[in-house]
Specification:
Blueprint: E1 10-12, E2 18-20, E3 24-25, E4 34-35, E5 38-39, H1 47-59, E6 64-66, H2 75-83, E7 91-96, E8 98-101, E9 106-110, H3 114-128, E10 133-138, H4 148-160, E11 164-170, H5 174-179, E12 186-192, H6 200-209, E13 212-216, E14 250-251, E15 254-255, H7 257-270, H8 277-288, E16 292-294, H9 301-313, H10 318-329
Parallel strand pairs: 3-6, 6-7, 7-10, 10-11, 11-12, 12-13, 13-16
Antiparallel strand pairs: 1-2, 4-5, 8-9, 14-15
GO cellular component, one term: cytosol
Keywords: Oxidoreductase
InterPro entries: AKR_Detox_Biosynth, NAD(P)_OxRdtase_dom_sf, NADP_OxRdtase_dom
Length: about 325
């Protein structure tokens, strides 16, 4: 599934390919979509700019892009398909489980039956212009454990049919990650992880089972870029302004005070070695475990360049990691 390599900033995937230990998350480039009046995207986007940013990421060595069938009601997959198509040197990961209407940009519901999964796979293949999905991930975070067996049996069948190369679960629950780790083709768990949320229980499962830890939210939805101040609010179509139970980093569209306090105590440590704050946050993840694989989001070439620049500097030192732990324990 995953092999630790000599370089701390490369990773060997389930297919034997060694790539830089950094992917790009494609939620934001999907543009706006909604559940009623509640925004689920990150605001308006320029597709030409998105394609330019993807091209720049590839030029800088990035070989892994993560999206989902519902991001932008399918628009994220379409943009990736336009930019990458069926290139065999690029790994494209997508997800299924949430249905959306591409015309109204509205969320319809969550589904996990075999017929839905198969329709979703065919739709993703068409949008992405791929002959096979490199990695297909179950997107329903808290789906009942006992009912998940049928889901992954379907994924095993799709793999046997050549529709997908590998599969995983996008979930923050360690027991869900562990349940299917023994299946042939189950190679990854995508979960929230960053300096503020080190999730030791999930990392223990990942390391014990030999999975890839795909880290969503590696920059805490933008807090760890340093671009937000206490008074700065997000736009009207930005999910970070929505009153959602899981939206912990932002309250009423502004940086949550408790996270602002945590950021203050780690800022100088993360920017050690000439790193930007963003690069330090990625370096923290690489130092945390040899199996972590962050996928920061992007919308611009500048964001891609800053993210990719972290690879040159590598993981944080053991001493700095210890100092960060101590600083956060005091907040």
């Amino acid at each position: 599934m995953l092999t630790k390599t000599a370089s701390p900033t490369t990773i060997t995937l389930w297919n034997g390919r060694e790539i830089p230990r950094l992917g790009m998350g494609c939620w934001a480039i999907g543009g706006p979509f909604f559940a009623g009046d509640t925004p689920l995207g990150w605001g308006e986007v320029d597709d030409n700019e998105s394609v330019e940013a993807i091209d720049r990421a590839i030029a800088l060595g990035i070989r892994f892009f993560d999206t989902a069938s519902n991001y932008g009601a399918g628009h994220s997959e379409e943009v990736l398909g336009r930019a990458i198509g069926n290139r065999d040197d690029i790994i494209v990961a997508t997800k299924f489980g949430f249905a959306t209407d591409p015309e109204t940009k509205q969320a319809i519901g969550a589904f996990a039956d075999e017929a839905f999964i198969r329709r979703s796979v065919e739709t993703s293949l068409r949008r992405l212009k791929r002959e096979r999905l490199d990695l297909l991930q179950f997107h329903l975070n808290d789906f009942p454990l006992e009912q998940s067996d049928a889901v992954f049996e379907t994924l095993e069948a799709l793999r046997a049919e050549g529709k997908i190369d590998a599969f995983g679960w996008s979930t923050d629950f360690p027991d869900r990650a562990a349940r299917h780790a023994g299946r042939a083709g189950f190679v990854s768990v995508q979960h929230t992880m960053n300096v503020f949320e080190p999730v030791p229980e999930m990392i223990a499962v990942v390391e014990q089972k030999g999975l890839i830890s795909i880290n969503r939210g590696p920059l805490a939805m933008g807090l760890l870029t340093g671009k937000f101040t206490a008074g700065k609010a997000v736009g009207a179509k930005d999910v970070r302004g929505a009153a959602l139970d899981w939206m912990v980093y932002f309250k009423d569209g502004r940086m949550a005070p408790e996270f602002a306090a945590r950021l203050d105590v780690v800022r100088d440590l993360l920017t050690s070695g000439g790193r930007t704050l963003t690069q330090g946050a990625l370096a923290w993840l690489w130092a945390r475990s040899p199996r972590t694989f962050p996928i920061p989001g992007f919308r611009t070439v500048a964001q891609v360049e800053e993210n990719a620049g972290a690879l040159e500097k590598g993981p944080l030192s053991v001493d700095v990691m210890a100092e960060i732990d101590a600083a956060l324990a005091r907040v």
